[in-house]
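Before relying on records like the one below, remember that each one covers exactly one chain. Contacts with other chains, cofactors or solvent are not represented anywhere in the record.
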Amino acid sequence: MTDGKTESVGPRCAIIGFGNIAELGHLPALRELGVDVVAAVDICEERRKKAGAAGLQTFESLSGLDNFDLDFIDICTPPSYRYQPIEYAAGRGLDVVCEKPVATSSGLAGLKDLMQDSSIFFYPIHNWKHAPQYVKAKEIVEENGGVENLTMNTLRTHYGTGTPDWNPNWRVDRSISGGGIIMDHGYHNIYLAMHLFGADFTNAVLEDVTYFKSNPEIEKRACFRLEFPGERRATITLDWGAARREIKNTIYECNHKLELSDKRIVNSDHTYEFDESLSGDSVHGAWFKNVFADFLRLRASKDKRHFIEAIRVLEGINSLYEQSRS
């Protein structure tokens, strides 16, 4: 079954892992941008049925894609299942867009080795950069001379659950997720801090960590700091047991302070209001159109910076986990 491009004008892709984020976030955005999403691979029969109902050809394994003429693959599996499709794409010369984290701690070295010898374009889904609140915050701090210090608080009443068709609690299974709230929400906060500072951090320092009593391998709450050049720092607090679900950030600029919350930015004497809350849901489907537009715009560049950023985030997370064990 060789599937040619005669009827398609846009790039063609397959989705690997057809869970909630793929069905509700990725697929609608890709189609809106004119991408021809032709197939989905998922080990779960119920998820393959849902992909089929969405008009995709479905397969249980990657080998089902062998005769498809593709431009890239979109990886939405849980973290521990991501290396194999990345390896498959590299072997076929297909570009990759991949949900975060792009690897677990144990798979990081292998991924770095694989990509060092590959010329494919690798784009991690760092979707919170595309949230309107963070787009505006980045604009403001650049106008005001940059960030001096930053506090970030991600408060959640519970960890996010996945589709009931497969394993809804995979985020608290370390063999699948690679970690708890540091790997999940901490990943977002680290790349956002790098984005707002416009720099790489020099050190990640764990200050406090608390684990689930019933699951001592998974951290429920954590506080850590990232140190940046020029004695600047970001202090990050994460909680899966908070009284309410919210985002609270304070950005200290030169002679300014910016307060960023779920639906509002307050900076000096100006307040910016936003329609969608940062804590509204866990899919954030409205952001994905800009995420994929950026990926499609940059594909031809083969720029490694996006992959390097994802690796640096994971290196910071690895350091935090090593400190937690010492």
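Residues 305-325 form the longest helix (21 residues).
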